[in-house]
Amino acid sequence: MNNASNPHTEAKAQDEAGLAPLRVLLLDDDVFMLDVLSDMLEQLGQFDIRCESHSEQALSSLQQHQPDLLICDLSMPDIDGIEFLRMAADNGFRGGVVLLSGLHSAVRLAAERLAVANGLHILGTFRKPMESAELQLMVNLQRQHSARSTSAQAQDGDA
Known about the structure:
Elements lengths: L6 H10 L5 E6 L3 H14 L2 E6 L2 H11 L3 E5 L7 H10 L5 E6 L3 H13 L3 E7 L4 H27 L1
């Protein structure tokens, strides 16, 4: 018998266990990419998904929607992804972040380092288009991070 967990089955089991759906904010100026990512998420389980194609609207959604997970393109026409991430950190965003870009890997790595320096929790950085298996891994990492944070908060409350 194989003891390795199946990420797809794991996500379905969490949905069936009655856990609240993960809140996800997708930010990309390419509406087609938003549709692709949204469809990929829906195939992985239950999510509360918001899609934004403008950074200004996404900042507003961060405050109102308070997502657990932000999937963010780095190349945006209005506010670039790096500046957006700095603003998200300044506004107290504490969820997980996945960075996407068609730009060179050195640019993606620099953006990741800047985001971490700004206090953001970076789950991963990927070249566009993102693969479904990569997305599933990021969702699982965020669920684990959320569970640890909730557990730590509960222990702090008991102290």
